[in-house]
Model the fold of this input.
Amino acid sequence: MKKVPFNSARTNSSYQDVIDVSPEEVWEKKDHLCLIDVRSQEEFTGELGHVPGSKWIVLDILNDQLDQLATNKPIVFICRSGMRSAKASQIAKDNGFEVTYNMAGGMLAWNSKKFKIEN
Done:
């Protein structure tokens, strides 16, 4: 798998193995990424919406759904603020997924940039 370079890549403050990336770079590179939203269904379709093209897998069942993750693209996990998605990225890494990222700031940051959403 080809790694997508992120200029904004930074080590997550809570999970040492997790790399945070900016919403701006996720927006720019979204067509080359597997986007996984780990929020509840109400959040995924709610006020903050979700990133167009993202797949919904609730964090609570992620371990049981790891076979649903793309292996041919880097994976970016998304949540409301970046905490649950950081945990999701750590879970994926712990299960052998090497190229995973956390979208820093989650959908709150995405919406603050006024990027397109779907509900």
